[in-house]
Amino acid sequence: DAGITQSPRYKITETGRQVTLMCHQTWSHSYMFWYRQDLGHGLRLIYYSAAADITDKGEVPDGYVVSRSKTENFPLTLESATRSQTSVYFCASEPGLAGRLAKNIQYFGAGTRLSVL
Amino acid sequence: RKEVEQDPGPFNVPEGATVAFNCTYSNSASQSFFWYRQDCRKEPKLLMSVYSSGNEDGRFTAQLNRASQYISLLIRDSKLSDSATYLCVVRPEYYGNKLVFGAGTILRVKS
């Protein structure tokens, strides 16, 4: 049972480079999410997707791009990395059970630690 | 004002102690509430959902007070393994799937 996996687990890059973080889930969950976690801020939503080819902005989308051509994959791209994007990035998925919001649990990947130098 | 606020702690307690955390939320239309647990440098994991009537799971009890817009988590008979950051999580829109996370409360249980 692979669940939800993120790759790479660690990444060091330089300012101005493009970086793509991968997220893959095996549950066929409808919803997928990208968060970043910084000290003192908790988890903040970057982008989310309700289904393949449907994406929407979260709280902090600037500088990021997402796509979802297949239900199981939800890559996050930093088009031109900046030092302020140094963070821990978590991908999550949720089944999207209509009318059962309390049962709609989000499951998280292990995270990607990104450092932008 | 943050949408979900928690006391960051840390709460330092001895093994066997009872400890309680509170969390307040600003959106009165919020419909779903959760406590997640996050161990150091790892992903958040669901600890328990919080139901209107309150609910218990072993040593953990969660309460919801809609009138005052706060959620609580009570941990009885604390174990060393309870040491973690506890995240208060709110779903603010009835038909939305987005979650809002508090910054977390750090618990350290010492022998």
What tags apply to this protein structure?
heterodimer; A: 117 residues; mainly beta; seven-stranded mixed β-sheet; globular; B: 111 residues; five-stranded antiparallel β-sheet; 11 strands; 0% helix
Q: What is the residue-mean pLDDT of chain B, rounded to a whole number?
A: 92
The whole-number mean of residue pLDDT values of chain A reads 92
**Which stretches of chain B are low in confidence, meaning pLDDT under 50 for 5 or more residues running?**
none
How many individual helices of chain A? 0
Global morphology of chain A: globular
Radius of gyration of chain A: 14 Å
The description of the largest β-sheet of chain A is: 7 strands, mixed
N-to-C CA distance of chain A: 36 Å
Q: Oligomeric status of the shown chains?
A: heterodimer
In sequence order, what are the helices and strands of chain A, one letter per element?
EEEEEEEEEEE
Instruction: Give the DSSP E fraction of chain B (strand runs of 2 or more residues).
Output: over 45%
Shape of chain B: globular
Q: Report the sheet-strand fraction of chain A.
A: over 45%
Walk me through this protein's architecture.
The complex is a heterodimer of chains A (117) and B (111). In chain A, a hairpin with a 3-residue loop joins strand 4 and strand 5. In chain A, strands 2, 4, 5, 6, 9, 10 and 11 form a seven-stranded mixed β-sheet that branches. In chain A, strands 1-3-8-7 form a four-stranded antiparallel β-sheet, with no helix packed on it. With 117 residues, chain A is mainly β. In chain A, 33% of the residues are buried. Helices cover 0% and strands 50% of the residues of chain A. Chain A is built from no helices and eleven strands. Chain B has no helices and eleven strands. In chain B, the strands form two sheets. In chain B, strands 2, 4, 5, 9, 10 and 11 form a six-stranded mixed β-sheet that branches. Chain B starts with a strand and ends with a strand. The model of chain B has no long low-confidence stretch (mean pLDDT 92). The interface between A and B is medium-sized, with 27 and 22 residues.
